Each structure stands twice: as C-alpha cells, then as structure tokens.
Amino acid sequence: MKNVLFLSSWYPSRVHTTLGNFVRYHALAASKYNSINVLYIVADDNVKDYEIKYFQDHELKTTIVYFKRGIFKYLNYFVAFTKGFHFVKEKNKLKFDIVHMNIMHPGIWQALYLKWRYKIPYVVSENWHGFQDLAKYNLSFLEMKLIKIGIRFSSVISPVSKQLKNCMINANYQAKYQIIPNVVDTDKFHIGELDTNKNNFTFLHVSTLDDSIKNVSGIIDAFEKIKHKNMVLKIIGDGPVDWIIKKVSTLKTKNTVIVESEKTHDQIAEEMQKADVFVLFSNIENLPLVLIESISSGTPFIATKVGGIPELFNNELGRLVDAGSIDQLLSEMNFMVKNPDFFNPSRIRSFAIKNYSNEEVGKKFNDLYIENCN
User: Fold this and answer.
1) pLDDT at 98 (0 to 100)
2) b or e along 231-243 (b: 16 or more beta carbons within 10 Å of the residue's beta carbon)?
C-alpha cells in the first residue's frame, strides 16, 4: 500500500459543490488499495486570509485550504498550498511515495514544486476537454509553458480516453501515456425496481447545462417534434436553468418537459433508475461520467459521436448520432419509444461493472503507483 498525495485543479468544496466530482470518485477508487490524502486549494474571498478544513470522507483523508486572493493572488495561492502540504504531512506523520495530480491546468505547478523540492514523483490524470483544441482558451505563454513542463517531468499521463490521448499527442505533448477511464459507484448506480404503474416514457438529461457544449436546446428541439403521447423530458443540472425554462414555455407540444436544478449524487442515481433513456447531445466531450452512470443503472442511452464516447459504445448499450443532427436525434428517440424492450438492462450494467467499477479502476491506479514510485 502506497501513501499517495492526491492533488487537483478541480475538486468539490463549499465554493462549488460539484466541480471535479469525478476526481473525488477517482480518489475513492484509488483508496480501495492505497492510502489517499486529498489536498485541494481553492480561492474563497469570504475568508480573512487562509482557512484549513480537514475531514474524513469514507477512506479519503481530505484537506481543503481556502484562501483570500487579494492583490497578490498568485503568491497567496502558493502560500495556501505550502500551508496545506505541511498541515497534511504533520497531521498524518508520513512520507508520500507518489503524487497523483488531477487536471493539468492550472494546478500542475503544485506537482512540479513537490517533485523539485521533495523529489516526489508524480502521475497525472487528465479529463479536461480543452486539450482537444487549446487555441480556443487563449492561455498565456506562462500557462502553456507550465503545461509543457508538467507533462515533461511527469512519470505518466493518464487520460480518461484514447481520443484525449491522441489529442495531446497531436498537440506535440510527448509523454508516457496510460489510459484509465472515469469510474462509477456501481453500488449506488444500479438497476431500479420495475414500476408496473408507470404510464409515461421518460428521457433524462443531466449535465452542467452549458448549451455551447451540451446542446441542451437541441435535445428540447428534437423532443418537441415527437408525436407520441405521454412523453417526458427531464433536464437536471448545476448550471443556469432560467433560459431553459423560458425556451420550454414556448414549446408547442402536449408532452411534458421538467427542468430541475442541482441534485445530490444519490438523487441523480434515482433519476437514472427511473428513466427509460438517457440523452447526451454534446458538441464536445471526453469520457462523460453521466454516461457511465447511465450504463451502470442499466439505462440505455442516445449520445453523440464525439470525444471518447465511441470508445465505450457497443450496440447493446444504446445509439449514437452525429453532433448537432436534430433529425438523427429525433429518429433515435422515436426508435427508443417504439422499441422499449430492445435493450437488456442487465447486459448494459454488466459492461459498467467490467470496465468502470471502483474495483477495476482502483486496480489500474494501484498498478500505476507501484510502477512509478521511487
């Protein structure tokens, strides 16, 4: 068992309760076989200077440092990190075997600092879709340089999909790559009990509701054209919903659209179990966690052929459409309604257990740590 310091550019905190939740799930998977200490630094201008919060999250020993940005925000960011690192070291009285950095930008400097100052090797898990086209993000010269240096000095870069790996290679980021996918709690996301009294057919969409990425408006447009009765489209997300509610109010359909704000992970699991089909009509993706959660729940999906989605697809799981094609999406939604028993929930779920469970992904991280410790 290795002592692992888990760092991340994104992680759930009181500032943003769902940001980087997939990183936390990776940490929980890794904790199946190793001792994981999470350290996350986040700006919170409501604090006076610095505030350190420590708590036990299942098997994760978690430390979050909140800091006030102020005039010298970058210096304060660095000070917050060093305070957090020394707090974790002293509290647990241990020496770290390896650092596991998550999301290269903007926090990779933390792993670099620990490698240069304390000679601790680091691996990086990468999930950011920005690597598909960095030019869109107008990163500064220093930010681009840090990414390049961070990749150069890493022991391994671990993208969540083959497509993301290829994007990084095509951007001339040379490294040792090892793909480790997102993970799902298969105990929480499972097949629900059959509701024999149900008289409607439900399409579910869960996301950040960023329309430029998730194309929620496209899902609504396709749903409006469905001629079948007793149809429900449920949209859930942690982003702004006012624009969706406004759009829904103009629809000329007798079917129902339900829009709900952020829900807990347990509540999302319940929604997945109750849904007939999960819909993800994204313009850009990596390996979306919600799709894996749908599979674990035995719920078939309709998704776009973008990012790493085709890598997890087979004909027993759902249907694929071209990004932006309302006609294709409508056709597949109609297919699902007409063929409610076409997909086998148990076969769908078995795919998730085999490929994305805590045990499987945790073993991959365990092997990664063993191979790359000093």
Assistant:
1) 98
2) bbbbbbbbbebee
